[in-house]
Amino acid sequence: MQKNFLTFLLTGLISLSGVSQQIDAAKLDSLFNTLEINDRFMGSLALSHKGRTIYAKAIGHRDVKNSLKPTVGTKYRVGSITKMFTSVLIFKAVETGKLKLDQTIDAYFPEIENSDQISIANLLNHRSGIHSFTSRPDYQDWDTEPKTRAELLEIIRDGGSVFDPDSKAQYSNSNYVLLTFILEDAFKKTYSELISEKVTGPLDLKNTYVGGPINLDHNEAHSYTYEKDWKKKDETHMSIPLGAGAMVSTPTDLNTFIHALFTGTLISMESLYQMKTISDGYGMGIFPVPFYNKSGYGHNGGIDGFTSVLGYMPEDKVSIALTSNGNRYANNNIIIAVLSAYYGNPFEIPTFKTIKVHSKDLDKYLGVYASEQMPLKITITKEGDTLFGQATGQPSFPMEAVEKDVFEFAQAGVRLEFTPNEKTMVLKQAGSVFNYTME
């Protein structure tokens, strides 16, 4: 749901070998053991081929206070992966004649700016121009409180429009909340009922549903952020994200869902073709997911301290899903490692070596850095012995010193390499390199 500094790029620099006959499960176990020993990741992962699970792992705690361990059946909030489910419901409505992709939304929401120019398709592929309500400065002041449909519509209406409909694409959670209301009006049923009737019921997904208050007795997980130790996050009230981010699931269920989607079980292949047609980086509830020379599709998610990834490689019928309730290591790196193990490619197990720094040592890095390669400026600050970075419009992130003048934010795969005497900094993330200079 929320904006963050995480990426969803599975890129690489070498060619893939053919499909692996046997996954290197022992090395993957070693990877997850390392993550757990170093307190870097809590969550679950599953890899499937043709709908059959071939590797699954769960580590960490689903509840830290009571030392409750997760299982592969532990359920996590999956955030914006929910949008894939919502898109499937929209295409089901289109296929049964209840909706049309090109119909405008003014009949549903006349109070929304430009509603007579915004189509259902524009909502699906983030081309509506409607401001995302989760980007409001006050969003985290009220996200734990219940909201009615009328209240959410007022909030979305007040956000207005940030660009002309269909002129470009920009991610907006408001789009999928509005799609939720359209679905409920079209079918005369709640979103939860529609998910159960049209998706989870037919696929027998017993661990996938629209979430409510987290219930440990139902093998659900709390979420956490790390501040010298794990701190429990507050829960977003599920009356707010709805079809934009309210689903709860497991990696094995998510793999079953996406395999069914890509094999024509949920919607027609014609609808799937429309869903995965990419314009300005966006499909209709789906993103492109490259892995080396493979072309895949999927979505990621983030809500509270939960993060998630779901991807599918149609050529090989390989699906991979990750759900996390706390991490200090990039999900992207884990996904790359697991897929590399499957395809027979090498991958490294991190060592998590750090060096000790003192507050006075950090002063030479402090300042605002700008780059000609990207519009985001990076502000470097400190709190005690910890260096922090903050990109324009995004939350600050703590970094660990891993070498002299080198700091990392492992959760997002960010590496900052400073040259203090030249007042420059190099940002490395997901294979990309950006040069920065202090202003």
From TrEMBL:
This is Serine hydrolase. GO terms for molecular function: hydrolase activity. Keywords: Hydrolase. It comes from Ulvibacterium marinum. Residues 355-423 form the Peptidase S12 Pab87-related C-terminal domain. It holds the Pfam family Beta-lactamase. Residues 44-329 form the Beta-lactamase-related domain.
